[in-house]
Write a structure and sequence with these properties.
Layout: H1 2-44, H2 51-59, E1 78-85, E2 92-99, E3 103-111
Antiparallel strand pairs: 1-2, 2-3
Length: about 110
């Protein structure tokens, strides 16, 4: 009787363990993918680039749709943070771009 009970209990435990492992693997993949995209985008931005062209590339890069907006919009200097959603909740990898008339810097960052 104890042996039958253990057989019935073992299947849900193994399924639950498998689901947890799959979730952790998915989260790790999401983190790595977001980091790779952010670094690749940051490496593509060069000092002296046109800020409008950089913003256009950011909107087509797979970034979070609301992120590629210059702040402040009208004045100089301004900042553009291009964010890529990570696998862990509230995690994002990004590229912070500073510009005046032209891009002055682009730096990778990670936020939680």
């Amino acid at each position: 009787m104890l042996r039958e009970f253990l057989k019935v209990l073992l299947i849900p435990v193994l399924v639950g363990f498998g689901l947890i492992v799959a979730l952790l693997a998915y989260m790790a993949y999401g983190e790595r993918s977001a980091k790779d995209l952010a670094i690749k985008f940051c490496d593509s931005v060069k000092v002296g680039d046109d800020p409008i062209a950089v913003q256009s590339r950011a909107t087509h890069s797979g970034a979070i749709p609301s992120s590629p907006t210059w702040v402040p919009w009208e004045s100089q200097p301004r900042t553009l943070e291009v964010l890529f959603k990570g696998g862990i909740p509230l995690s994002a990898h990004g590229c912070r771009i500073q510009a005046s008339e032209r891009v002055t810097s682009a730096v990778y960052f990670h936020t939680r």
